[in-house]
Amino acid sequence: MDLPDEDTIRILITTDNHVGYNENDPITCDDSWKTFHEIMMIAKDYQVDMILQSGDLFHINKPSKKSLYQVMRSIRLACMGDKPCELELLSDSSKVLGYSDFTNVNYEDPNFNISIPMFAISGNHDDATGDSLLCPMDILHVSGLVNHFGKVLETDKICLSPLLFQKGKTKLALYGLQSIREERLFRTFKEGGVTFEVPTIRDGEWFNLMCVHQNHIGHTNTAFLPEQFLPDFLDLVIWGHEHECIPNLVYNPIKEFNVLQPGSSVATSLCDAEAKSKYVFILEINYKQNKSQPRLIPIPLTTIRTFKMRNISLNEIPFLKPHDKESVTKYLIGQVDEMIDEANKETKEKLRQNGIEIDQMNQDDDLNELSITIPLPLIRLRVNYAGPTSSNKSNSGSGTITNSRIIVNDMLDYQVENPRRFSNRFVGRVANSNNIVQYYKRKKPTVARDKDKNAGPSNDQVGNLSVNNNENSNNNGELQIELLVNDLLNKMQLSLLPEVGFNDAIKKFVDKDEKTALKEFIDKELDNEVDLLVSSGQFLDKENPEDIKVLIKEVKRANTSRKKSVLSSHIASEEDSVNVNRVLPDDPSFTRKSLDKIDIVSRRSFKPTELVSSVDKTLKMQSNSIFRKSSPDSIVISDSDENIQSSDNDHIIMSGDSDDNRGEDYSKQKSSISNQSFTRRKNKLTGKLQASNSSKRKVAKTPRTDILESFLAKKRR
Amino acid sequence: MDLPDEDTIRILITTDNHVGYNENDPITCDDSWKTFHEIMMIAKDYQVDMILQSGDLFHINKPSKKSLYQVMRSIRLACMGDKPCELELLSDSSKVLGYSDFTNVNYEDPNFNISIPMFAISGNHDDATGDSLLCPMDILHVSGLVNHFGKVLETDKICLSPLLFQKGKTKLALYGLQSIREERLFRTFKEGGVTFEVPTIRDGEWFNLMCVHQNHIGHTNTAFLPEQFLPDFLDLVIWGHEHECIPNLVYNPIKEFNVLQPGSSVATSLCDAEAKSKYVFILEINYKQNKSQPRLIPIPLTTIRTFKMRNISLNEIPFLKPHDKESVTKYLIGQVDEMIDEANKETKEKLRQNGIEIDQMNQDDDLNELSITIPLPLIRLRVNYAGPTSSNKSNSGSGTITNSRIIVNDMLDYQVENPRRFSNRFVGRVANSNNIVQYYKRKKPTVARDKDKNAGPSNDQVGNLSVNNNENSNNNGELQIELLVNDLLNKMQLSLLPEVGFNDAIKKFVDKDEKTALKEFIDKELDNEVDLLVSSGQFLDKENPEDIKVLIKEVKRANTSRKKSVLSSHIASEEDSVNVNRVLPDDPSFTRKSLDKIDIVSRRSFKPTELVSSVDKTLKMQSNSIFRKSSPDSIVISDSDENIQSSDNDHIIMSGDSDDNRGEDYSKQKSSISNQSFTRRKNKLTGKLQASNSSKRKVAKTPRTDILESFLAKKRR
């Protein structure tokens, strides 16, 4: 492809590359980074002016050295070079990159020779965690290979400042918003906590582009980002997080902007949405175009493994009988064989189009030979094994069975082979030979059910986007951490640790592999509780340990009742509550050649009197006042983060002292979790409490670390 | 400091920065990277031409995002800039960096503006692991911030090629050798497997500098790198790995080279060697100098936490009685108080020298206030609690007691307080308030004992280097993995898995946090064993499972006896067996301005007839022949790596099949470890064995993953 003309900004758009996905699998281990490399090479070939990545570049937020290495290698190969980047940066990048030590965009840093700058936001998979709140994108940013933008430091007060670019006569304002927990972001939008800054000069000349990484359509009332929340001065929204590729712009007639959902570049779950073709996109923006019709070129990705999916209801197959396991198995094998053939044909066709011809002999002759020369396909066969006459409604939707033999609780259901045993027949012919087949039981016809699931609430929403949220729709028998924890808490009488925060800490420990999450959580709880006790004058007067116990019980009781009332639900209304700040710069005469950065917003912009909104101003004011009225209690919707962060944690944990006479077992337990913090706290108290406390203490059991470790082991399997 | 003159190559030398050490500790978490930053800033201030790092830049081989971020940030701030690097590269760097995708040294890459190139080797802590054999230095290399040299791909055939630099009239040949397992490297040297390439032109004009990262002095016969092994054409060896800083060049009169042991920049263990002052070094090389006397300037590091260590034998204190626990505790508290005062004085003096004056009021007034303004010291008090008259020799050296109360097996020993309880008194005044005191019991006077330990075999060696190997000397009650594993193996009858390889895999799992190490090990074993069975014609004939069992038992018996004979010890002799290859280039006329890289060695150089050794050639030939004579068996000295890698693993593990009727528990166990591999193997066998095997199979128990996870948890605590 030729160079873009002097007024055209050409952008490569990709998202959800999930580099590192399945990297321990012997067959698919390299899929993710190889596709990422292909994408980077496309960017280079097309000589784009910029690469935009809309989150989840990495599959986990602690990428392996291999993932990091491959990503850095590909970016270095694609983005560095002598070709000058023709984008002129018109704004002060430190407003966007100010969180970092390196506030300049990389292509303006004199120490790097960047020909294609890459701009990326962090997603929910590669989010910032730990003490230092660093995400993998920060590593790439400090290395100078990527510009990590859209970083949010306070989730309840978000100010989005654009990066302003110009090439020839075309102007681009680029906004980014990192992935934020859905309910949190929803609330912040509803409360008017999100402010967009817009350039005030050359109004209307800017193409306003925004990258987000959120659920596109809600699974609960508040667990998504409604398009209505976004301001209508935007021209295009790049929507990361959703893995289904929709290879065209979808126009939102109410907000008058386009939405592009590029989808993932690797299939991370074997569902309908991921079975569709995968693309990256070249976007061309030119000042002569109608802004609602930028040029979009989908580029099919050639390194994607062919993925075939099929749904079968056994009760629709006339010649199969429920008790005849052998025939059912035979039939299913036939189905898989067909799918493999289809997939291989498709793969070969793809390879042929890219100039790779598969040997004719191989094609007809030997299937094993063939499987060596072309990449093995991913195959998923979903089988409804519900019997033809069983109509027990309470059984419908009883879930899928993957790891154990099907327990025949309804004698009329079809007998099927163990799924792993079934799948293993196809070793060497498919890439996922452990989980080809997935059994489920449902009375409704399969087709209706799937439509139901995937396109569910889309009619309420603008556009007809069908959605796959790979976090929520995962019903492959994954462990539900919350259930396990609650179960544990019930069994172990851990009533003094706040449940919500505990769940959150365990989630971090399991999902994000944050080894210190539990220790930090318990340390913080202990700190809060000791502070509470120390600051209570009432407490310090008491010398009798029994009185102290009574005090603690009271605090605990008060807490429990308060917490219940806080969890009342909050009805989501759909008003627009986005703030858009506009400020006239001191010098309104704007010349393109001026080297001074445009002052987008100054301190003054936060005064409400100066707000000039391009969206419905009165509506915004109304909505603000609506939310001011509601009581603070009713706003909290299962918002565990805040409960941990705030200092009003008032459950009390009492831990034993370090008397040598205690049982060895207990002391190990204690030291494994919060030894240091405890002893620190203890010393704080020692002066005043030593005499009264050393005699009797109630020991609250804390969960043993190896239980948690075994969760981890299960999860990782 | 002024710029070095036009003929002087100025090098900053550092090693063992261990960035990330103790990074979860609330007090010392930032010590390691802050000191690394100080070092980088020294490099910048002194305007050095090059930074040399001799291994263990990171404390672990999977550094946290924070460690990676801080290191990259410091390097980017120090090493990038407009000042041109005045070193001229005269050799083809792809001979050294050829393992990478980026074979150019970073300061010659047109895409980076490097003013100070950094060259680093990988140590034993940041070594390469995993599938992709990547170490953290590879990440830094691909980012363009560091030149990762000294990488060895085959440990039994090492060819060391130098990077050749010139500045003005001074020439530098730089060699690097990554950390290699001690016994392995020892053997490779002994077998003549290490070859040094040397430039053949302008012979004698080169300053030959080498970086290594090995034990300096042996703890066993072969677990170190003797200086004698290194060729005597070298002028200076930078010795990483040893944490004691020896702030001067140590001349080896036999080899006629200097050795510099820079030591670590953060104390990773509280022992004598780490209590010494810590420095980095500026080395200046000039062609006018005598090569054995380069200019060396030690730069004291100011961000190092003051560390005071004291040894006490309670039986030398006349007024203390063994049964008087209270007085002993009081005395020890007094000792620690003294040490804290000493340390604080030293810290203040250091700060004063760096222009930071501690408020006079604070100094005398309030100790708590003081501790906020100056960094808390590290304090270690070693206490010999052996009683005055106890002379039970079998008790001497019974080890230290850290976590549990001392069990008084000798009534005459001094009664002492629980060490953690004792240490916790000093919270807020010392940085290591969990482990200030360390009790041990030993009849010999303390001073002699410590000399014994630290300076042990140094008299046999050249120079008078006292040594601390922080891996081996750790007697803080750390878990001995081998013992645990052997214990487990005995209990669980895991006799079919080779013990050596199993130990190694668990070490990787625990020490290096390689989650797939066990899976990979068992997969490999299974592969080998199935291959063995399949390839055995005898086996395939048998239809009776009993006969198969007999066959397996035979193989196993044969193995066990073979393995024992292999483990015979190997007497280390101290001959020099280094190969030095010299090759005349096609064009012997060498001009400085010639842009052609010097051809150091061509393919021809490997022919023995062309070897021209600068070291004792005849000796080398002799030594080669000596080692050829010894039988291959007798060379293997606890060399577990090779046992895993080689395909002659002949222990057999039989695993159960996936019959649905098996217990749930067992199937979980199995799938957690080697599900995929097993089923793959199984399918391989299915065709021929299905009939005979499906009836009976002996299940060998494999250890459950959560046991290992709990090791991990203990280790990390």
TrEMBL record, chains A, B:
One of its GO terms (biological process) is telomere maintenance. Keywords: Chromosome, DNA damage, DNA repair, Endonuclease, Exonuclease, Hydrolase, Manganese, Meiosis, Metal-binding, Nuclease, Nucleus. It comes from the Eukaryota. GO terms for molecular function: 3'-5'-DNA exonuclease activity; manganese ion binding; single-stranded DNA endodeoxyribonuclease activity. It is found in: Chromosome; Nucleus. It holds the Pfam family Mre11_DNA_bind. Residues 462-473 have a biased composition (Low complexity). Transmembrane segments: none annotated. Its main location: nucleus. Residues 441-473, 637-717 are annotated as: Disordered. Coiled coil: none annotated. Its cofactor is Mn(2+). The active site is at H125 (proton donor). Residues 294-509 form the Mre11 DNA-binding domain. Residues 669-678 have a biased composition (Polar residues). InterPro entries: Calcineurin-like_PHP, Metallo-depent_PP-like, Mre11, Mre11_capping_dom, Mre11_DNA-bd, Mre11_N. Residues 659-668 have a biased composition (Basic and acidic residues). Belongs to the MRE11/RAD32 family. NCBIfam families: mre11. PANTHER family: DOUBLE-STRAND BREAK REPAIR PROTEIN MRE11. Core component of the MRN complex, which plays a central role in double-strand break (DSB) repair, DNA recombination, maintenance of telomere integrity and meiosis. The MRN complex is involved in the repair of DNA double-strand breaks (DSBs) via homologous recombination (HR), an error-free mechanism which primarily occurs during S and G2 phases. The complex (1) mediates the end resection of damaged DNA, which generates proper single-stranded DNA, a key initial steps in HR, and is (2) required for the recruitment of other repair factors and efficient activation of ATM and ATR upon DNA damage. This is Double-strand break repair protein. It comes from Arxiozyma heterogenica.
